[in-house]
Design a protein that fits this description.
Helix 1 crosses helix 3 and helix 3 packs antiparallel against helix 4. The chain has a domain of 73 residues. With 120 residues, the protein is mainly α. The chain is 45% helix and 0% strand.
Length: 120
């Protein structure tokens, strides 16, 4: 039996993409990111989708209990939340590449070039 195709209306595309993009954030359980994720407008939809992924067997090992952890974290008081955070799981900060200045027409990059324009 061939797979069926379902057309998803465009008005739902942004919401679906947003829920999918939240999924990696659920794996980060340290620092202030967890508290900001709880305040996200699509948190509940993302958590429900995470629960479906856990129950379907898509997530295995330590990640299989991720939805239950988030339930406990959301229901806990602030002091208990601090104790639940995973220590030592601080993600590395991404460095943005340095932007080069805008070149004007006729200018060239002199990096590594001789500083004397008129060699003798």
């Amino acid at each position: 039996m061939p797979a069926k195709k379902i057309a998803i209306p465009r008005r739902f595309e942004a919401t679906i993409k947003e829920i999918w993009s939240l999924q990696p954030r659920f794996e980060q359980r340290s620092g202030g990111r967890t508290h900001r994720l709880l305040e996200h407008p699509r948190y509940r939809a993302g958590r429900d989708f995470l629960d479906l992924r856990c129950k379907s067997g898509e997530l295995e090992g330590e990640l299989a209990g991720l939805a239950a952890w988030w339930d406990r974290f959301a229901d806990a008081d602030p002091a208990a939340r601090e104790g639940m955070l995973v220590r030592g799981e601080v993600p590395a900060k991404r460095r943005r590449p340095r932007r080069r200045g805008r070149r004007r027409d006729g200018e060239r990059d002199n990096a590594g070039a001789d500083t004397n324009p008129n060699p003798e």
